[in-house]
Design a protein that fits this description.
- By secondary structure, the protein is an all-alpha fold.
- Helix content is 79%, strand content 0%.
- It contains 21 helices and no strands.
- The chain has helices at residues 2-27, 29-48, 57-85, 87-106, 111-139, 145-149, 151-169, 176-181, 184-195, 201-206, 210-220, 223-237, 244-247, 253-268, 271-284, 289-317, 319-340, 349-368, 370-378, 387-439, 448-461.
- Helix 2 (29-48) packs antiparallel against helix 5 (111-139), helix 2 (29-48) packs antiparallel against helix 9 (184-195) and helix 17 crosses helix 20.
- The longest helix has 53 residues, at 387-439.
- The radius of gyration is 22 Å and the shape is globular.
């Protein structure tokens, strides 16, 4: 009897795990599209160059950067929408916008329509950058939430790598339309996949649909955890929905500040100068085109590989150790890259090897820390009633900072050279490290309502004189 009961429990638990992991994997297709659509343009540009009567540098820059502008708007709209109509419907709309955008780009009759298509794709990229971690985070059991939410970051890195490989594979035909258009496949899969999923239990409770929340949770948790979790969510709902004004309320400001600063640091420490420009940099440094592309694929593989390591560690070591060690590694990588460029942009083979090694150390360190931890933390530290809106603000800050760095990088490079730029990123990484050590809370293994209750309690205990999150891990709160 006992054995068959035990087997029954094991079977039930593995069905639960399958549903939780399956749902997270489907949702993470949004991350794949984020990575693919931001990565694909670097290769596509090589062939777009001669289209539409020839593209000037400015026209090329617009094709790249208008996606980032669209992403800011998408992040802004999606948070409010996710709070209002639900996470699931917002992702369904996002997938539809993805399909429309990539098809418009693939079949564009003119340069102007291509620009519109890039903005439309950007809207979807920005929307999915926050709805994916939000939705996965609310469905995930606390014990494994770090790894599951970071499937999103893994999907982003895989999307970037796949885009490099597609660009490389299609380079002989120069078929840039197909490069853009292939993204329609994961977009349709995302739409169909989300149709099979249920609304977030957190959102359902918040909207007074407790019976539905209970039945959704029953599919995602062992039976004895359903009622406590419902009660916990109900507890933190408090006085109802918070709008933009509430974001500035004293209780929420500290978390908002941490999220926005992490967003900005994730970008101003230079990741996308490597992701978007590494091949051009290495090519200019004297590497042949195919060696530069190969080195780039190598960087992409390290990015994916170290993200897998992070997923395995986030729920064991916690978020802070990875964030702190990863940021230290990024600073070392950037300073080594700066040294490789001392003496000019053209590198000897020894210094080219140092530059590639440095970029690999830098990217690997980003992938194990700041890459996944930023998107994870912003899905964890905000109170339920403003979660979508607050995540919007952090994601918008991320896309805004990405835009500023991306459009100014080449100008900066001309003005202060590789050494200057990389030392600047190295210095900013050290500032980020100092901030993370002082301000970023530990959230490992704690339920979202518990993190929220803790942040609030700490806030009440120590009335804020400035934007302040408890220094050190929240997890060690008394
Ligand atoms: C960042 C992106 C970046 C990617 C690289 C993400 O976490 O938000 O801007 O391109 O990581 O892997």
């Amino acid at each position: 009897m006992r054995t068959s009961g035990g087997n029954g429990a094991v079977r039930a638990n593995s069905a639960i795990s399958r549903r939780v992991i399956g749902g997270a994997a489907i949702t993470a297709l949004g991350g794949l599209l984020f990575g693919y659509d931001t990565g694909v343009v670097s290769g596509a540009l090589l062939f777009l160059h001669h289209e539409f009567g020839g593209l000037s540098n400015i026209k090329e820059e617009l094709v790249t950067s208008l996606l980032l502008v669209g992403a800011m708007a998408g992040a802004l709209l999606a948070g409010r929408l996710a709070d209002r109509i639900g996470r699931r419907h917002t992702i369904l709309i996002t997938a539809t916008v993805f399909v429309v955008g990539v098809l418009l780009a693939a079949f564009t009759p003119s340069y102007a329509v291509l620009l519109i298509a890039r903005v439309v794709i950007g809207l979807a990229v920005g929307a999915s950058s926050l709805t994916v971690p939000l939705y996965i985070g609310e469905a995930a059991p606390p014990r494994v939430r770090g790894g599951l939410v970071s499937l999103n970051q893994l999907a982003i890195t895989v999307g970037i790598l796949v885009s490099y490989l597609v660009d490389y594979g299609l380079s002989s035909s120069g078929n840039w339309r197909l490069m853009f258009g292939l993204a329609a496949v994961p977009a349709v899969l995302l739409f169909v996949g989300i149709l099979t999923q249920h609304e977030s239990p957190h959102w359902l409770v918040e909207h007074g649909r407790e019976a539905e929340a209970r039945s959704v949770l029953a599919r995602l948790r062992p039976a004895d955890q359903v009622e406590p979790e419902i009660a916990e969510i109900r507890d933190v709902i408090g006085q109802g929905r918070g709008g933009v004004r509430e974001l500035l309320a004293a209780a929420i400001r500290p978390a908002l500040f941490v999220g926005v600063m992490m967003a900005v640091f994730q970008q101003v420490t230079g990741i996308n100068t490597v992701i978007y420009y590494a091949p051009s940099l290495l090519h200019d440094a004297g590497l042949g085109a195919s060696s530069a592309l190969l080195a780039n694929v190598g960087i992409g593989i390290v990015n994916v590989g170290m993200t897998i390591v992070a997923i395995r560690l986030l729920d064991r070591t916690g978020r802070r150790p990875l964030l702190i060690c990863g940021s230290a590694g990024m600073a070392i990588g950037m300073c080594a890259a700066a040294l490789a460029f001392v003496g000019g942009a053209h590198l000897t083979s020894g210094r080219a090897a140092l530059a590639i090694g440095a970029l690999v150390v830098y990217t690997g360190s980003f992938a194990i820390g700041l890459g996944p931890v930023f998107w994870l933390l912003i899905s964890e530290i905000y109170p339920l009633r403003v979660r979508g809106t607050a995540m919007s603000v952090a994601s918008m800050a991320n896309w805004g900072a990405n835009f500023v760095v991306t459009v100014s990088f080449l100008t900066l490079l001309t003005a202060i050279g590789g050494t200057g730029v990389f030392f600047l990123f190295g210095f900013l990484t050290l500032v980020a490290l100092w901030f993370f050590i002082r301000r970023v809370p530990e959230t490992k293994g704690r339920s979202l309502p518990a993190i929220e209750a803790d942040l609030r309690r700490r806030q009440q205990q120590e009335p804020p004189t400035e934007q302040q999150l408890p220094p050190g891990p929240v997890g060690h709160a008394a």
